[in-house]
C-alpha cells in the first residue's frame, strides 16, 4: 500500500497540514474543517492553535458540533478549537488556551500537569496540560483528515512533525507524547528552519544550480509567534554541478517572537488607557488588549499603513459597551517598539544581554533581551569558524556573516520587519545580502516537511543534517571555575540511526543503587574544531544547555559495579537515545530515560567531602547499625553533638555531606526503633540531612525510600518529642514530596487540627498526633496541593487569626499564637512558592481578601502580620499571580509606617530575590550551603 506523505507544522499560533498523494509531486494543503462561528463549519489551511472552554449555557450543544465525533485527548467534554476559539477567546481570554507550544519548552513547570489557561482561578473552566493541549490540535487534524480520506487513515501515512531546531530533548519527547495521545504514535521529527528551506529548495528544484550559484552560506531566520530559531546551511557545488547543502549550526531556544511584540504594544496601550483607580489590567483583559494590538501591529506594518490605529478594550458585564476605552497606536510607536526594540540596528559586536529570564505576564520565561538582532550576532559568533570555512574566508577578527538569507515565520509577513533584518545583516557584511523569497511563511514549514520526505525518497534536493548539537556527559569530579569538564557522547552532524560508542572510555556503572547522569548540549565547538565521540573537552559554562536529568536505579539481582561503555544515537524520529553497554557482553544494555517534569537546571557542583566523613558514618553505625552492642542512651542523645565535633557546626554542612549522612541513616533505618532516644535522634537527623527534599542528585529516589516509612508511623507514639520530630521531618522534606504524598499529609493535618468528635471514627490508625504548632508548620509547607485547597486552608487560618482577642495588650501566649498562624498564612498565601510550581499558588483574589483582613490588625503590636502580608503581596511579575495595585500600595504604606525591615517592602514593590534572613524565616530552616531554591 502506498502512503501519503504528510507534514504537520504544530505552531505556536497556527497548525498546518500539507501532503502529497502517493506518486505525486504536487504538495497540497489540507483544508482543515473547523468551527468558524457557533454551529458553522468551514475548511481553512490554518487551524489556530487555540482551545476555548465555554461556560455552561454559553453555546448550545449543536453549536459545537463537528462533522465527526472524537473524544478530546485532554478529557474536556465541551471545547471549541481553531478559529471559533480565537474569536470567543478575544472576548473571554480567561477561557482560552493558547501558546501551548511555548509551554512545552518551559522546564520550570510540570508540562504534563493541567496548568492552562494560565493563572485562572475559576472553578468552572477546565484546565489542561501543555502536552494535552498540543495533542488536541493533532487529534483534530487526524479526525479532519480521516473524514476527508477515510480509506487512508492519517495514522497509517508517512508523517513528519516539525519542531523548533532549538527544542531540547525534553521538549521533543513531550511533542512525541502529544502525538501518541492523539493517536499518531509513528512519525518523524524535522526541525522547522530546515523545513522552511526544504520548501524553498523544492519550489526552485528546476533552477537550483543557477539560483544558488553565488551562495555559500544560508542563514534561516525563523521568527514565529512564540519562538525564534536560527540555522546555518553550507552550500557547495557537487561534481555534477548541483548544489550540496549541509546544515552546520543551530541556535539555542528563545521564547521570543510576535507574541512578545504584541505584548510590548499592549503595555503601551495599557498606560495610555489609564486604569480605573490606578489599577493594572487583569491578566485576562491584558490578553484581550494584546490581541487587539496584534491586529493593529499588522495594519501599521503594511506598506499602505495608516498614521495610527485605535485599539478598544471592551468593558465587562452590563457595561460591555459603555465602559469600553480606546487608545491610539501610531506608526511611530511600532517603529520605536517593534522595529527598534526587537530588530535594532545594532553593531555586529553587540550580543544579547545575559540575565536570568523572569516569569512575566502570562507565566512564560521570555528571553531577557528582546533584541533579536543581538541574539543573532551571538549565534553567528558561536559558529564563526564553521561560517568562515563555508564562506572560504580567513579569520580577520570580523564577524563572518552569511551571504544569503531565508526568512520564515508569521512575523516576517510584515515587510518592514523583513527588510530591517536584511538591512542589519547587509550592514554587518558591508555588502547587500541575497534574500531568498518565501512566498508564504505561514505554510512553508508544513510544505517543507513533505519536500523532506520526497528528498528522503530521492525525489527532491536534500540537506545533510544529522545531530544539530554536540552532546556531552559532565564529569562532575573534574568541574572547575567557569568551565565544565566533559566527554563528548555524540558530535554535531552525527547521522540518524547510527550508534556512537565511546570505545576508548570505560565507566563503572552502579547496579541496584541510584545513579544520575548530567548531560548537556552545545551548538559551539570547543577550540573551534568539531569534537569526536570520546573526546574530553572543557566547555564554557555559558555555552551549554543542561538537558533534563537522567536519574534512575538500574535493577540487578545484587548491588555491584560493572564496567560499561556509553552508546548514543540520534534516533530516526530525531531524539537522543543513551544506553550503558556492558564491556564484556553487548547484549547487556541499560537504556537511560530523561526526566521530563520540571526540576532545577542548576545542579550543584561536586564539593570535596571532609576526611572525617568515614568516622561520622561509623558513629551513625554504632548507634543505628545491625551489630548487637550496648549503647548508652546518653550517647544516642549526643549523636548530633558528636557529629558536629567531627564535621564542624551543622549549619556549615554542605549539601553533598548532608546527603551522604542521610544515606547512612537510611541504610540503618531499622535501628531507629530500638528506643525512644533512637527514634528521636534518627528522625531529627534524617529530616535535617534531607532538607528541603530536593535540589541534589537522586533526592527524588531518597524521598521515595523515606515516604515508604510514612504509613508505619512512629514506634514510640506516646513520647511527645518523638511525635514532634516526626512532623518536623516531614515539614523539612515537604519540598520533595509528590502531590499525592502532600495530600496524604493534608489529611493528617485536618484530623489533628479540625476533626470533631463525629469524625474520630474515621481517624487513621497510624495517625501520629501533632501539636498545633507542628501541624500549622506542616500544613503550610504543602505547596503542591491544589490552589483551591490552599484557599480553604487560608480562609480557616484567617478566621483563627481574626477571632483572637484584640485587646490593648497582647500577652506572650497570644503573641506566640499570632506568630504561628500568621507564619502559616504567609506560606499558604505566598505569591512565590519555595518548591511548588507557579500555577499552584493560592488564588490572587483570595490573597487580596486575606490582606484586607490583615490590614485590620495593628502591625506595630503584631509584627508577624507585616511579614505575612509582605509574602502574600510579593511582586512576581506574573500578572495572574500578583495582587492589584491598590492593595499593594496599602501594604507598602503600612510597612513603611510600622518601620518594617527594608527587605519586606522591597519584595512587595519589585521582583527581587529574598535575602537569606527572610528566606530562612519563611522556610522555617536555613538552606544547606550551596543549595539554592527554585525561583
| Overall mean pLDDT | 86
Which fold does the CATH topology of the largest domain refer to?
Nucleotidyltransferase, domain 5
CATH class call of the largest domain: Alpha Beta
Low-confidence stretches: 317-322, 355-360, 596-606, 930-935
Our measurement of the CA-to-CA distance between the termini, rounded to an integer number of angstroms, reads 53 Å
Structural class: alpha+beta
Measured by DSSP, the beta-strand proportion falls in: 15-25%
Total strand count, please? 31
Q: What is the helix tally?
A: 29
Q: CATH superfamily name of the largest domain? A: ATPase, nucleotide binding domain
As a whole number of angstroms, the C-alpha radius of gyration is 30 Å
Shape: globular
Helix content: 25-40%
- Largest β-sheet summary: 6 strands, mixed
Second rung of CATH, namely the architecture of the largest domain: 2-Layer Sandwich
Number of domains: 6
Protein name: Molecular chaperone DnaK (HSP70)
Organism: Massilia yuzhufengensis
Keywords: ATP-binding, Nucleotide-binding
GO molecular function: ATP binding; ATP-dependent protein folding chaperone
Question: Can you walk me through this structure?
Answer:
This protein is α+β, with helices and mostly antiparallel strands. It has 6 domains: 5-186, ATPase, nucleotide binding domain (Nucleotidyltransferase, domain 5, 2-Layer Sandwich); 209-252 and 368-464, Nucleotidyltransferase, domain 5 (2-Layer Sandwich), CATH 3.30.420.40; 258-342, Actin, Chain A, domain 4 (Alpha-Beta Complex), CATH 3.90.640; 470-592, Substrate Binding Domain Of DNAk, Chain A, domain 1 (Sandwich); 604-768, no CATH class; 783-935, no CATH class. It is 36% helix and 17% strand. The strands form 8 sheets. Strands 1, 2, 3, 6, 10 and 11 form a 6-stranded mixed beta sheet that branches. It has a 6-stranded mixed beta sheet with strand order 18-17-12-13-14-19, with helices on both faces. A 5-stranded antiparallel beta sheet has the order 26-21-20-25-27, with no helix packed on it. A hairpin with a 7-residue loop joins β2 and β3. α17 runs antiparallel to α18 (676-690) and α23 runs antiparallel to α24 (812-829). It is globular, with a radius of gyration of 30 Å. Residues 317-322, 355-360, 596-606 and 930-935 have low confidence and may be disordered.
